[in-house]
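Researcher: We plan to redesign the surface later, but first we want a full-length starting point. Tokens attached.
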């Protein structure tokens, strides 16, 4: 009698446990068929700042990995030579302005004397030509002064936009010269994935124009906000490039690998929620729920991981069976 009471109590316990577990029914469902392709992340806005004047690097304010705001000073080149050049040009401009002012006064006097017929036309023409030449000389030197001032400004290297420094090509004490790369940075807000897709798949991919992005370390897939098809093909590999926009601040790094799932159709597959699968090393299993029985752990063979949290079942389950949505809770007997 005690044995039967024990079995009855166990049956009631298992029934209560099964009722408390969240469950789902295994079924064939219409899901999105996808073509899966590896993709490489790249920055839409990435640039390398280079030196525009020669000089020694005297200051570096940011290192690789640092965030830099637009306009902040990344580094400085020794401005001594540039300052001397500006000072020299300023002196030449002042000298030319004095010469211009003197020739202007002389021209005015000659002009008055000419009106009184004390000097001839030749003297007036020469005075006018000398004055105009002095004016042109001042303009030329002022332009040179502006160029020297601009070159001096080039000794301060500012960030062209807010971003992250990804490479530093010089160190303090090194010589910079025009055209030498100094630092590379990118804007982490604007990243995209680049994938090369076989031409045989392009028609279906373009037709649906929909894709999901699978990133390492993230359980849920991201929906691509924009897909750009590059209208060229590689004659050697017979592939075309497809660019997939990433959401802003997606924490992806340039050159990082990701998987893109391009939607190419609809199909019926036997699927279960991926959250219901218990993974232990190479083992994939689920807890099958049957009336008045303890949840049974059953090994299954999985196929493709699909969008919206579904995974295909190839073997181990049949349509209509009930499984636990929370395998850990089922295993603990909650």
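Model: Full-length starting sequence:
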């Amino acid at each position: 009698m005690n044995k039967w009471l024990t079995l009855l109590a166990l049956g009631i316990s298992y029934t209560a446990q099964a009722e408390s577990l969240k469950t789902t029914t295994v079924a064939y469902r219409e899901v999105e068929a996808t073509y899966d392709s590896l993709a490489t992340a790249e920055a839409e806005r990435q640039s390398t700042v280079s030196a525009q004047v020669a000089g020694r690097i005297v200051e570096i304010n940011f290192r690789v990995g640092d965030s830099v705001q637009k306009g902040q000073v990344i580094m400085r080149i020794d401005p001594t030579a540039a300052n001397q050049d500006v000072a020299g040009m300023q002196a030449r401009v002042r000298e030319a302005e004095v010469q211009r002012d003197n020739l202007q006064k002389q021209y005015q006097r000659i002009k008055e004397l000419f009106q009184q017929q004390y000097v001839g036309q030749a003297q007036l023409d020469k005075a006018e030509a000398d004055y105009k030449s002095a004016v042109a000389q001042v303009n030329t030197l002022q332009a040179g002064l502006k160029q020297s001032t601009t070159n001096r400004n080039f000794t301060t290297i500012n960030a062209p936009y807010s971003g992250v420094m990804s490479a530093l090509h010089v160190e303090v004490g090194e010589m910079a010269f025009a055209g030498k790369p100094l630092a590379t940075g990118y804007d982490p807000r604007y990243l995209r994935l680049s994938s090369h897709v076989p031409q045989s798949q392009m028609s279906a991919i373009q037709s649906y124009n929909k894709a999901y992005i699978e990133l390492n370390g993230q359980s849920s897939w991201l929906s691509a906000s924009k897909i750009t098809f590059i209208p060229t093909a590689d004659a050697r590999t017979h592939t075309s490039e497809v660019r997939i926009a990433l959401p802003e601040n997606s924490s992806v790094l340039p050159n990082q690998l990701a998987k893109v799932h391009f939607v190419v159709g609809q199909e019926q597959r036997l699927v279960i929620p991926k959250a219901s699968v218990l993974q232990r090393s190479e083992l994939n299993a689920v807890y099958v729920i049957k009336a008045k029985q303890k949840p049974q752990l059953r090994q299954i063979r999985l196929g493709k991981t699909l969008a919206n949290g579904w995974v295909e079942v190839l073997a181990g389950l049949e349509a209509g069976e009930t499984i636990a949505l929370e395998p850990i809770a089922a295993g603990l007997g909650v």
